Automatic annotation (TrEMBL):
Keywords: Cell inner membrane, Cell membrane, Membrane, Transmembrane, Transmembrane helix. Its main location: membrane. It comes from the Bacteria. Coiled coil: none annotated. This is Protein MgtC. Belongs to the MgtC/SapB family.
């Protein structure tokens, strides 16, 4: 009680509350898209960053805040590494790890009292994860010149683990009915609640509109939470 300071307590409360609310907006978007680091993870990262920086400021002023902010930046890398997964030649979770890193930045800004800057960073993160998605999809779906590159096409669907068997058959049938034979179907457990099926197509000419239609039809199934397709090249 000798060190109790109502003013500092109020500052910490406001910082943590702002970090909580802003990270909740970021995490809600990640949770909606069934990413491995969702609402709670992003909120906890931001709250922790805000608390640590606030502690540093209280102990040693701006110098203390700066020192602990540096530790937050380096420490969040270990947490981000935990959500990055390698599947063969593909790497998943980089976007989620980057989002966690940005949530830590929001927490740091809130912790040192730069609330307006924290809001701006939050809006930028949300814009990057939502507004840029159509552009990314458009680039990924652009026709590939098969004379200069060999393309591998995959259809990916998300479902609950208990529906994997039924969805495997549904996915294969939907693609083969669209005249796209399936070479292989891989199952990746994204979390306890989400499994991903990735169907690799036999090398063939692909019409993006037809794969869009297949993805749309699959998303109408109650078994499917999300469906998309992608193309990769080996140059």
């Amino acid at each position: 009680m000798l060190h109790f300071d109502p003013g500092r307590l109020l500052d910490l409360t406001v910082s943590v509350l702002v970090a909580f609310l802003l990270a909740m907006a970021i995490g809600a978007e990640r949770q909606y898209r069934q990413r491995s680091a969702g609402l709670r993870t992003n909120v906890l990262v931001a709250i922790g960053a805000a608390a640590f920086v606030s502690i540093g400021s209280r102990l040693n002023g701006d110098a203390g805040a700066s020192q602990l902010a540096a530790y937050v930046v380096s420490g969040i890398g270990f947490l981000g590494a935990g959500v990055i997964m390698k599947d063969g030649g593909r790497v998943w979770g980089l976007n989620t790890a980057a989002t966690l890193w940005c949530s830590a930045a929001v927490g740091v800004l809130a912790g040192i009292g730069w609330m307006a800057e924290a809001v701006i960073v939050t809006l930028a993160v949300l814009a990057g994860n939502t507004l840029l998605r159509p552009l990314v999809n458009a680039i990924n779906r652009a026709p590939i010149d098969e004379r200069t590159a060999e393309a591998t096409y995959e259809m990916r669907v998300m479902t609950a683990p208990e529906h994997v068997g039924a969805l495997r058959e549904l996915l294969t049938d939907a693609l083969e009915n669209a005249s796209y034979p399936v070479r292989d179907v891989d199952v990746v457990e994204r979390s306890d609640e989400v499994s991903e099926l990735a169907a690799t197509l036999v090398s063939t000419a692909v019409d993006p509109a037809e794969l869009d239609a297949v993805a749309t039809a699959l998303e109408r199934s109650p078994l499917v939470t999300h469906a998309s397709w992608s193309a990769s090249t080996d140059e």
